[in-house]
Write a structure and sequence with these properties.
elongated, 167 residues, mainly alpha
Protein backbone atom coordinates (compact mmCIF):
# COMPACT_ATOMS: atom_id res chain seq x y z
CA UNK A 1 0.00 0.00 0.00
CA UNK A 2 1.11 3.53 -0.66
CA UNK A 3 2.91 5.21 2.22
CA UNK A 4 0.65 8.23 1.84
CA UNK A 5 -2.53 6.19 2.29
CA UNK A 6 -1.01 4.29 5.20
CA UNK A 7 -0.28 7.67 6.80
CA UNK A 8 -3.90 8.81 6.18
CA UNK A 9 -5.25 5.64 7.76
CA UNK A 10 -2.92 5.84 10.77
CA UNK A 11 -3.83 9.48 11.27
CA UNK A 12 -7.56 8.69 11.17
CA UNK A 13 -7.14 5.85 13.67
CA UNK A 14 -4.91 7.81 16.06
CA UNK A 15 -7.11 10.91 15.98
CA UNK A 16 -10.28 8.84 16.35
CA UNK A 17 -8.94 6.90 19.31
CA UNK A 18 -7.57 10.03 20.95
CA UNK A 19 -10.79 12.04 20.55
CA UNK A 20 -12.98 9.12 21.62
CA UNK A 21 -11.24 9.30 24.98
CA UNK A 22 -13.32 12.42 25.61
CA UNK A 23 -16.47 10.29 26.03
CA UNK A 24 -15.81 9.36 29.70
CA UNK A 25 -15.06 13.00 30.50
CA UNK A 26 -18.25 14.09 28.76
CA UNK A 27 -20.30 11.53 30.70
CA UNK A 28 -18.72 12.70 33.97
CA UNK A 29 -19.53 16.32 33.14
CA UNK A 30 -23.16 15.43 32.39
CA UNK A 31 -23.32 13.69 35.77
CA UNK A 32 -21.88 16.81 37.45
CA UNK A 33 -24.42 19.07 35.72
CA UNK A 34 -27.31 16.83 36.84
CA UNK A 35 -26.04 16.69 40.44
CA UNK A 36 -25.52 20.46 40.53
CA UNK A 37 -28.94 21.18 39.10
CA UNK A 38 -31.12 18.74 41.01
CA UNK A 39 -29.35 18.59 44.37
CA UNK A 40 -27.82 22.05 44.70
CA UNK A 41 -30.12 24.10 42.42
CA UNK A 42 -27.04 25.42 40.65
CA UNK A 43 -25.76 25.32 37.11
CA UNK A 44 -23.11 26.82 34.91
CA UNK A 45 -23.89 27.61 31.31
CA UNK A 46 -20.24 27.31 30.32
CA UNK A 47 -20.20 23.73 31.63
CA UNK A 48 -23.33 22.80 29.70
CA UNK A 49 -21.90 24.38 26.55
CA UNK A 50 -18.65 22.50 27.10
CA UNK A 51 -20.58 19.23 27.01
CA UNK A 52 -22.41 20.27 23.85
CA UNK A 53 -19.22 21.38 22.07
CA UNK A 54 -17.33 18.31 23.28
CA UNK A 55 -20.02 16.11 21.75
CA UNK A 56 -19.75 18.02 18.47
CA UNK A 57 -15.96 17.70 18.50
CA UNK A 58 -16.18 13.96 19.06
CA UNK A 59 -18.75 13.56 16.29
CA UNK A 60 -16.67 15.54 13.80
CA UNK A 61 -13.24 14.11 14.48
CA UNK A 62 -14.28 10.48 14.92
CA UNK A 63 -16.02 10.37 11.51
CA UNK A 64 -12.84 9.61 9.49
CA UNK A 65 -11.93 6.92 12.04
CA UNK A 66 -15.37 5.32 11.70
CA UNK A 67 -14.93 5.30 7.93
CA UNK A 68 -11.47 3.73 8.25
CA UNK A 69 -12.76 1.04 10.59
CA UNK A 70 -15.76 0.37 8.31
CA UNK A 71 -18.03 1.27 11.25
CA UNK A 72 -19.98 4.01 9.47
CA UNK A 73 -23.69 3.81 8.83
CA UNK A 74 -24.51 1.71 5.80
CA UNK A 75 -27.54 -0.27 4.71
CA UNK A 76 -26.11 -3.78 4.89
CA UNK A 77 -29.21 -5.61 3.69
CA UNK A 78 -27.62 -6.26 0.31
CA UNK A 79 -23.98 -5.30 0.86
CA UNK A 80 -23.05 -8.08 3.27
CA UNK A 81 -24.33 -10.75 0.86
CA UNK A 82 -22.30 -9.47 -2.07
CA UNK A 83 -18.88 -10.78 -3.07
CA UNK A 84 -15.74 -8.94 -1.93
CA UNK A 85 -15.26 -7.68 -5.49
CA UNK A 86 -18.79 -6.21 -5.63
CA UNK A 87 -18.30 -4.67 -2.18
CA UNK A 88 -15.05 -3.09 -3.36
CA UNK A 89 -16.82 -1.68 -6.43
CA UNK A 90 -19.62 -0.24 -4.28
CA UNK A 91 -17.05 1.29 -1.89
CA UNK A 92 -15.12 2.76 -4.82
CA UNK A 93 -18.19 4.29 -6.43
CA UNK A 94 -19.54 5.52 -3.09
CA UNK A 95 -16.25 7.22 -2.27
CA UNK A 96 -15.76 8.81 -5.69
CA UNK A 97 -19.37 9.76 -6.42
CA UNK A 98 -20.63 10.75 -2.97
CA UNK A 99 -18.00 11.00 -0.22
CA UNK A 100 -15.21 12.89 -1.98
CA UNK A 101 -17.44 15.48 -3.71
CA UNK A 102 -19.41 16.07 -0.50
CA UNK A 103 -16.19 16.44 1.49
CA UNK A 104 -14.84 19.00 -0.99
CA UNK A 105 -18.14 20.89 -0.89
CA UNK A 106 -18.11 20.91 2.92
CA UNK A 107 -14.46 21.96 2.99
CA UNK A 108 -14.94 24.98 0.71
CA UNK A 109 -18.37 26.02 1.94
CA UNK A 110 -17.26 26.08 5.58
CA UNK A 111 -14.49 28.64 5.08
CA UNK A 112 -16.72 31.73 5.28
CA UNK A 113 -18.45 30.31 8.36
CA UNK A 114 -15.15 29.66 10.12
CA UNK A 115 -13.51 32.87 8.93
CA UNK A 116 -16.38 35.05 10.15
CA UNK A 117 -16.29 33.30 13.54
CA UNK A 118 -12.61 34.18 13.95
CA UNK A 119 -13.10 37.70 12.55
CA UNK A 120 -15.85 38.68 14.98
CA UNK A 121 -14.18 36.91 17.93
CA UNK A 122 -17.29 34.80 18.37
CA UNK A 123 -18.21 33.82 21.90
CA UNK A 124 -21.30 32.31 23.43
CA UNK A 125 -24.52 34.27 23.07
CA UNK A 126 -25.51 33.27 26.58
CA UNK A 127 -24.27 35.18 29.61
CA UNK A 128 -21.75 32.99 31.39
CA UNK A 129 -21.18 30.86 28.29
CA UNK A 130 -17.90 29.92 26.63
CA UNK A 131 -15.65 32.86 25.78
CA UNK A 132 -13.68 33.48 22.61
CA UNK A 133 -11.89 31.48 21.03
CA UNK A 134 -13.57 28.20 22.00
CA UNK A 135 -16.43 28.43 19.51
CA UNK A 136 -14.12 29.50 16.70
CA UNK A 137 -11.79 26.61 17.46
CA UNK A 138 -14.66 24.14 17.30
CA UNK A 139 -15.94 25.61 14.05
CA UNK A 140 -12.44 25.24 12.63
CA UNK A 141 -12.78 21.48 12.96
CA UNK A 142 -15.46 21.49 10.23
CA UNK A 143 -13.05 22.02 7.31
CA UNK A 144 -10.51 19.81 9.07
CA UNK A 145 -13.07 16.99 9.24
CA UNK A 146 -13.97 17.54 5.58
CA UNK A 147 -10.31 17.30 4.59
CA UNK A 148 -9.78 14.16 6.66
CA UNK A 149 -12.92 12.56 5.21
CA UNK A 150 -11.77 13.42 1.69
CA UNK A 151 -8.36 11.86 2.30
CA UNK A 152 -9.97 8.82 3.91
CA UNK A 153 -12.26 8.54 0.86
CA UNK A 154 -9.20 8.57 -1.42
CA UNK A 155 -7.60 5.90 0.75
CA UNK A 156 -10.77 3.83 0.60
CA UNK A 157 -10.80 4.21 -3.19
CA UNK A 158 -7.17 3.13 -3.41
CA UNK A 159 -7.89 0.00 -1.36
CA UNK A 160 -11.00 -0.76 -3.41
CA UNK A 161 -9.04 -0.51 -6.67
CA UNK A 162 -6.38 -2.81 -5.22
CA UNK A 163 -9.07 -5.37 -4.27
CA UNK A 164 -10.62 -5.14 -7.73
CA UNK A 165 -7.23 -5.73 -9.38
CA UNK A 166 -6.40 -8.71 -7.15
CA UNK A 167 -9.68 -10.55 -7.75
Amino acid sequence: MSLFFEFVQRTSVLLGKWVSQLYPLMILLVFVVVILRYFFDAGWIWLQETILWMHALIFLLVAPYALEEDAHVRVDVFYRKWSKKTQALVNLLGALVFLCPFSLFLFYSSFDYVFSSWTIHEASRDAGGLPYPFISLLKSTIPLTALLLFLQGLSMSYLSIAKLKND
